[in-house]
Amino acid sequence: MEAYIVDAARTAGGKREGALKNWHPADLGAAVLNALVERTGVDPAAIDDVIVGCVGQIGEQSFHIGRNMVMASKLPDSVPAVSIDRQCGSSQQSVHFAAQAVMSGTQDMVIAAGVESMTRVPMGLPVILPMQAGIGTGPWPQSIKDRHGVTEFTQFRGAEMMAKKYGFGREDCDAFALESHRKAAAATQAGAFESEIVPLPVNGDMHRTDEGIRYDASLEGLGGLKTLVPDGVITAGNASQICDGASGVLIVNERALKAHNLTPLARIDHLTVTAGDPVIMLDEPIRATRVALDRSGRSMSELDLYEVNEAFAPVPLAWLQQLEADPLRLNVHGGAIALGHPLGASGAKLMATLVHALSRHGKRFGLQTMCEGGGIANVTIVEALN
Q1: For site-directed labelling of 285, which of 86, 127, 132, 259 has its Cα 20 to 30 A away?
Q2: Which residues have a catalytic role annotated?
């Protein structure tokens, strides 16, 4: 069987302590679940499963955030859920698991979703709290540290290693960041995100615009920011923004299309996940894309749009360089540097942007990939159908 995307939606990003700070993560995710049901008209009781990606599964995101999202939503309690963690690729993996389920025929209609409130559950909290309480020695035993010759694994070091490995300087990274803001601003002003964003009530108004976009961004402003490490290239301006948000994708097979009279937005063409060096950590999307192209029989020339998560500017820059890809097809509506990176929600968020962008621009094939903690990368290729 084939896997089809019937709809994909996301909240507009909220800055840290911004518009979404008072939204409990379960309610934030539930709003997207409700929107998918309302927008498609499906019987919520017919949903076989909800697969939710979330990285910080502690505090308000603990005790099974996926199930809590369902209980907070208008879906009946008979709909099951599961919470997964593949770091930044968590909800892209949700998409993969959902697609595999409906392709196998064991389930017909699955929602792949993600949520992360980085205001209410700060990044790194699952590691920080036990260490502060004197519980345990952290996630990496000495055996892992000895094997890889490090005392810790950090994405910031990985980003600097990537910049050095592929020859990108501070100016390259800042120029890329500026372009991300410019594209996101233009897309917002043109209404490009309206079809994917779920408006949320905030202080008597509706939150429907990504808060992180800097409409007045300049090279001068970006150049004035301090690097995160001495003599480095990474700054807060050329790295992804901390963000609150949720996202979801309704994925079905042919049987569900017919039974519920649904019209799909896209067909899932290919799924790949690979893993590599956990120290540099962030360059695995390059190899994963090559593997995906080889397995799918697709070529870069066939791909009309790409969504490569802008965790740090060197990541998409290196991906473009090594795959000899067309920069005009990359993150055409901006990326995480401007729009934010709500960790566990980013995978389905990027998929929402990709399928709606394909439709808006009249394009056919799109590819999504992102770097993930531990040196992992997912790649998803989709074919737009309308």
Answers
A1: 127
A2: 88, 341, 371
Distance between CA atoms of residues 31 and 73, nearest Å: 7
Q: What is d(CA 56, CA 80) in angstroms, rounded to the nearest whole number?
A: 21
Q: Would you state the structure tokens that stand for residue 27, as one six-digit string?
A: 């309610």
DSSP class of residue 358 equals H
HSE toward the beta carbon, residue 369, CA cutoff 13 A: 36
Q: What contacts 307, CB < 8 A, 6 or more positions away? A: 331, 335, 350, 351, 353, 354, 366, 367, 368, 369
Tokens 């005790």, residue?
63
Pairwise CA distance, residues 54 & 241, whole Å: 17
- Per the CB < 8 A criterion, the answer to whether 110 and 102 are in contact is yes
**Cβ contacts of residue 268 below 8 Å, gap of 6+?**
2, 3, 4, 5, 95, 99, 251, 380, 381, 382
CA angle (89, 283, 163) in 5-degree steps: 125
pLDDT at 284: 98
Q: What is the mean pLDDT of each run of 10 residues along the chain (386 residues)?
A: 98 98 98 98 98 98 98 98 98 98 98 98 90 90 94 93 98 98 98 98 97 97 95 97 98 98 98 98 97 98 98 98 98 98 98 98 98 98 94
Closest CA to 314 of 158, 140, 162, 192: 162
Q: Give the residue from 297, 296, 294, 338 showing the smallest Cα distance to 316.
A: 338
